[in-house]
Structure formats: C-alpha cells, structure tokens
Design a protein that fits this description.
Blueprint: E1 2-3, E2 13-17, E3 20-41, E4 48-51, E5 60-68, E6 75-84, E7 89-91, E8 95-98, H1 106-110, E9 123-127, E10 149-150, E11 159-177, E12 187-194, E13 199-204, E14 214-230, E15 236-244
Parallel strand pairs: 1-7
Antiparallel strand pairs: 2-3, 3-4, 3-5, 3-6, 6-7, 6-8, 9-11, 10-15, 11-14, 11-15, 12-13, 12-14
Length: 245
C-alpha cells in the first residue's frame, strides 16, 4: 500500500453542498486516472463509503464526491483510498475534516410562519419514472435532506403527483431540486396542476438553503408537479412541500 500523496495533485477540499445542507462535497485531483473512494465517519472506524458518480467503473483524475449526512460544523475522520491502472493501491493517513457552516437563510426563517407541510402525510399517486428503488418518488415527501426522488433521465418531461387524501386549503408549495455535480438534474422551473384543473406557474425551483416558496392560495386534494425547464438528465426532487394555509 503506497501513500496517497504520491498521486495527489492538490489538497483535499471539503465544502458544504449549496443545494443540500444535509450533505457535503469532497474534492481532490490525482496525477493519473484512478478509481478512488473516501471512507469517513464520526470515529476512526469510519462507517461511510462514497465515490464519484462520474467514474462508472473507470479511472478519473477529478474526484468530486457527495457525502450524504455530513453536517456542517461537525468533525469527521476520513481516509482516501484508490488504485491506478497498473493495480497499485494507495491510501492516505487518517485525518479529520469539518465542513464550514453556511450563512443562515432569511427565507428559511420566514418559512417558519407558514402552515404544516401536508405532503408528509400524503401518498404518491403517479410518477413519470424512478431511477431505481433507492431513488423512489416517496423520498420527495419524507422530510429528509439525505434522500431524493430521481427520475430515469426524464429531463423536462418529469412529473410526480401527490395525493393529500382529502381536499385541503393550501398557502403554497416548494419544490427542492436535486442536482448532480456535473450540473445536470437541476430543475429550474416547475408547474403545479391541482385536481386536474388549471396549471399554475411556472415557479422557480428551490434548494434547501433557498426553498423559493411559491404562493398558490387554493383548495385541492391532488397536486401534480411537472418539471418545466431543467438542465436535463435524471431530474427529481430532494423534497416537495405542500404547505397549509
């Protein structure tokens, strides 16, 4: 096992994901293509394993890795491990990282005055597609920033329909987009159709840091969210909220 520093082209970088405050991003470049991963956790026993989704089984030099569940301000232990095409194995020394805490969002604080999120007790009535079981549409209504609904490459044709079970008075909605590190899968705008009636919007999609509350005072039971414009690919949502009036 060789020191990872022999193939490390720049410093390890850990930063907050601006689109999802419940995960971090790890970045490093290597001097030659490698299959590379980071193991990390709250103790030196680690417990988490992540690698770049851009690898697809082949070596790369720019390693940008999501760290789901890495909370800003908390200290974690980590090691970076990898191999090159000649079969040589590399590993870094155990070290620690802390993701910087982002500035508080005024919009998020304002959202505290709105009614409860009715989507948490709702069901998914229909969906354009799901990438796999780990990216099911129900992940968009589970109140978790570490799970996501991802379509299977639907781009601007992606949609999901949420059924509240009974007609309710609504103050507005939020569509928190998922994203990929290569810039794809970002929903830019979306529309909402209530009970098969008129289509409302388009509205700007949000992020966990900036939810972009869309006021749509209405009454309804089923809410179909359609991606209007996006950067294409496996679009979807970290969370969809239907907020009571």
């Amino acid at each position: 096992m060789r020191p990872f520093s022999e193939v490390q082209a720049d410093d390890f970088v850990f930063e907050a994901d601006p689109t999802n405050l419940e995960r971090g991003i790890f970045r490093v470049s290597t001097t030659e293509p490698m299959i590379c991963a980071i193991v990390w956790g709250e103790t030196d026993a680690f417990g988490n394993f992540n690698n770049s989704l851009a690898m697809n089984g082949t070596g790369i030099v720019d390693h940008d890795v999501f760290l789901p569940g890495a909370i800003p301000g908390r200290t974690y232990y980590f090691q970076v491990q990898g191999s090159t095409a000649d079969g040589a194995l590399y590993r870094s020394e155990t070290a620690t990282f802390t993701i910087p805490e982002p500035a508080p969002s005024g919009e998020a604080a304002a959202g505290a005055d709105r009614g409860p999120n009715l989507a948490l007790d709702a069901t998914v009535a229909d969906v354009s597609s799901e990438f796999n079981d780990s990216f099911a549409a129900t992940n968009a209504i589970d109140d978790s920033g570490t799970s996501e609904w991802s379509s299977a490459g639907d781009g601007d044709d992606a949609f999901v329909t949420i059924d509240l079970g009974t007609s309710r008075e609504i103050a507005g909605v939020e569509f928190i987009t998922r994203s990929m590190l290569d810039g794809t899968a970002v929903t830019e705008t979306f529309t909402v159709t209530v009970d098969d009636g008129a289509t409302l919007g388009p509205f700007p999609a949000g992020t966990p840091a900036e939810p972009n509350f869309a006021a749509i005072e209405t009454t309804g039971r089923t809410f179909r969210f359609d991606v209007d414009t996006s950067t294409g690919g496996n679009v979807g949502a970290v969370e969809i909220r239907i907020l009571a009036s």
